[in-house]
Amino acid sequence: MQPDTGTRDESPVAIEAAALPALFEALHGRGYTVVGPTVRDGAIVVAELASAAELPYGWGVDTEAGRYRLRVRDDTAAFGHSAGPQSWKSVLHPARARMWAADRHTGAPVAAEPDEPRRYALLGVRPCDLAAIGVLDRVLTGGRHADPIYAGRRDGNLVIAVECTEPGAACFCASMGTGPHAESGFDLAMTELVDDTGHRFLVRAGTPAGAEVLADLPRQPADEATVRHAATAVAEAATRMGRTLRTEGLPEMLAASRESPHWDDVASRCLTCGNCTMVCPTCFCTTTEDVTDLTGDHAERWRRWDSCYDLDFSYLHGGSVRVSGQSRYRQWISHKLGTWHEQFGSSGCVGCGRCIVWCPTGIDITREAEALFAWRDAIDAEEER
Length: 385
Known about the structure:
4-stranded antiparallel beta sheet; 8-stranded mixed beta sheet; alpha+beta; 385 residues
C-alpha cells in the first residue's frame, strides 16, 4: 500500500525523542526494514538501520556549490541536516538490478529469482524527497508498463516524513513548491523541535497505517504552543533557503534558448561526469549490460543507472547524437526543468540542491537558469525595439 495522496484530518500529538526506539520496535514488529539517515564515510547517507541509536544525533552539514562537510551541532537533533549524497531513489530504484540469468545447459534464459520481498519503512524523508518519490511513481508506475523492480520495492512502504526546519545553502524547495512543509504522500509526518523545553517531535498521521504505528508510541496531545512552534519553525525555514529558482515561464524560456551562447560557457566548466544525475532524486535513466562467468557457461543481464552525460546514452548506428558537453548539459537541464512538464505533468526538479552540492566544479542549476533568462529577456527587449 502506498501513502494516500492527501493527508487525514488527525490531531497532531507530541512524542519525546526518547520514544524513537519505540518507533523502531513498532516498525520492526510489523515486519518493516527501516531505512534512514546515518553518518558514514564523512557524510549523512541513507542506509538500513537496526536501531534509533544509528540516527545522526548532533550532526549537521555545511553545503555550498561543490562543497559538503559534516559539522557538529550544538544540540542533539537527529534530523538537523539538509539533503545528503543519497536519496530514496537508491532504495526504490537501485543502481544495479539483475533482470535474468541463464546457464548454457538449460537453454533459454529465465527471469532472475526475485529477492525476498521486503517492506521498507522510509524514515526521515524530507518534503522535497516526498515530491521526488511522487515523480518517480508517475514515471515508473504511472503508465501502461510499470517497472516491476520499482513497483516491487515501492509496494507496502511506510513513509515517515520529517519537515525541514534548517535548509542548506543549496536548497530551493520553496521555489519549487515542494517544501519545507510536508503536504501529502506520507504515512507519518514529524517536525523535530529542540529547545529549552526539551527534544521532541510534533507528529501527525497521514494514513490509517501511520495512525496504527503512532498508536503504539508513548505520546500526548500536542499543546497549542508546540503546534505553533512547529509551524513557525517550518515557515521560517522557507525564508532561509540558500537558493531560489524562477519557475514562471521556465519551460518556454528553455525551449527558446536553444541557440544561446551561454551553453558554451557552461560547457567550459562542465566535466560531463554525470554526478548531478546520480545524486538527483528523480533521474531514472538506465541501461543494460550482459556479463558471463569465466567459463562462458553462465550469463546474466543487469540493469544499471545511466546518465544523459554518457556518450553512449545517445548512441545510434554510426555514433552518438550528442557528442559535445554543451549539448549534453543542455539536454539535461532542458529535460529536467522544461520538457519533463510535457511528459509527466510536473517539473523534474524538486529543489533539493544535490546537483549543486555534488558538482565537482560547482555548477549551479539556479544560476544557469537565471543566466539563460537574462539572455532571453535581452533578446526579447531587442526585438521589441
